[in-house]
């Protein structure tokens, strides 16, 4: 796979230091135009991006127009449309928004309602990693700690990082050094890895369900077309009549999200891959053991000294032979439905409260009943 960029958005009110923060964070002085408390990013440039390399990762940064009292409605409308566009291709991870920075001036007396609304909208509703950045932390004094406490109280679980994006020489020869860059980037990459691992694992469950459905339909089609005539049953060669798909090729999607993680510059989450593979293999193995048990029970009936068990075994064998196609398809569906249910369980575990894949959650339709005696 090609290398993909980690997409992140930078949000905040006008004059809080978003552009200075970006210049400092990505070590690109002057790339993001700065101003003295005035709006810098224009509506024409709203949510336009710049791409940077950092420690083997590509970071795609979407800058935004600063929020002001008279532009909130327009800003929110454009923000919602931008986020919706980034949800339109849920099975293409490179199009997602992978995280956000919400910038607040640390000198603020308190968290404004507009800030609180957007922080909750991003972190809780969009379910993407979010860091609140407190700029001007070098001169804010005790306000940094007070604002951090307020954010943690009103927005539990949200990360808050104090930062000073510019070095300033003060009167008397003293100077303030920029700080916070490494803390912000380290935490962000950690959050991104955890976020991508979970969401890609959930996506892999959906991909795997799709692959299984295609496999099931292929196998059913082969069964329905196969010559399973009653008069040829003694010479039946199922391997020749019903050629099964290459399971290694079919299950190659199992580790696809590890490839995606590598494409974003992260080490693959092999533990999750192993969990997926082990869960599916276990269900198939358990079902196979049950099927073997059914046939052994019939075989045991024929070998029994009990006339009733012999008659019962004969009836079961005849029923299988006379309804061979529908029986095979029924067994097939039973096995696939169990795997499908296990993948649903894993999907809920990985997705948790994230409804990002809601449009992809279509009910599985595995069972297709063949006509009784559809063997002739």
From TrEMBL:
Organism annotation: Pseudomonas cremoricolorata
CDD domains the record matches: Ras_like_GTPase
Limits of the Septin-type G domain: 4-128
Name of the protein described by the UniProt record: Septin-type G domain-containing protein
Domain of life: Bacteria
A Pfam family: Septin
InterPro entries: G_SEPTIN_dom (IPR030379), P-loop_NTPase (IPR027417)
Gene3D superfamilies, A to Z: P-loop containing nucleotide triphosphate hydrolases
GO molecular function: GTP binding
């Amino acid at each position: 796979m090609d290398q993909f960029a980690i997409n992140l958005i930078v949000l905040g009110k006008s004059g809080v230091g978003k552009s200075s923060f970006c210049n400092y964070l990505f070590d690109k002085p002057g790339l993001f135009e700065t101003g003295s408390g005035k709006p810098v990013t224009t509506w024409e440039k709203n949510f336009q991006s710049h791409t940077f390399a950092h420690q083997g990762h590509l970071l795609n940064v979407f800058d935004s127009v600063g929020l002001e009292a008279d532009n909130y409605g327009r800003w929110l409308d454009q923000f919602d449309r931008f986020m919706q566009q980034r949800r339109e291709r849920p099975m293409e991870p490179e199009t997602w928004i992978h995280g956000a920075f919400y910038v607040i001036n640390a000198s603020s007396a308190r968290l404004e309602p507009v800030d609180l609304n957007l922080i909750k909208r991003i972190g809780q509703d969009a379910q993407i990693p979010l860091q609140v950045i407190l700029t001007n932390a070098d001169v804010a004094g005790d306000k940094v700690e007070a604002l951090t406490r307020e954010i943690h109280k009103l927005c539990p679980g949200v990360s808050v990082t104090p930062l000073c994006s510019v070095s300033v020489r003060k009167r008397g020869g003293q100077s303030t050094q920029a700080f916070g860059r490494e803390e912000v980037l380290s935490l962000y990459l950690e959050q991104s890895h955890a976020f991508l691992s979970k969401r890609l694992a959930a996506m892999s469950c959906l991909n795997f369900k799709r692959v299984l459905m295609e496999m099931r339909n292929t196998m059913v089609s082969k069964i329905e077309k196969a010559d399973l005539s009653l008069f040829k049953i003694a010479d039946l060669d199922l391997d020749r009549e019903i050629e099964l798909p290459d399971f290694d090729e079919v299950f190659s999607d199992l580790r696809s999200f590890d490839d995606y993680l590598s494409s974003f510059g992260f080490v693959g989450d092999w533990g999750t891959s192993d969990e997926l593979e082990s869960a599916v293999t276990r269900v198939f193995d358990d079902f196979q053991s049950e099927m073997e048990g059914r046939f052994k029970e019939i075989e045991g009936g024929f070998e029994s000294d009990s006339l009733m068990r012999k008659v019962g075994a004969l009836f079961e064998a005849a029923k299988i032979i006379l309804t061979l196609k529908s029986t095979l398809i029924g067994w097939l569906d039973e096995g696939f439905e169990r795997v499908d249910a296990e993948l649903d369980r894993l999907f809920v575990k990985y997705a948790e409260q994230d409804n990002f894949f809601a449009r992809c959650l279509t009910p599985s339709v595995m069972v297709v009943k063949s006509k009784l005696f559809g063997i002739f």
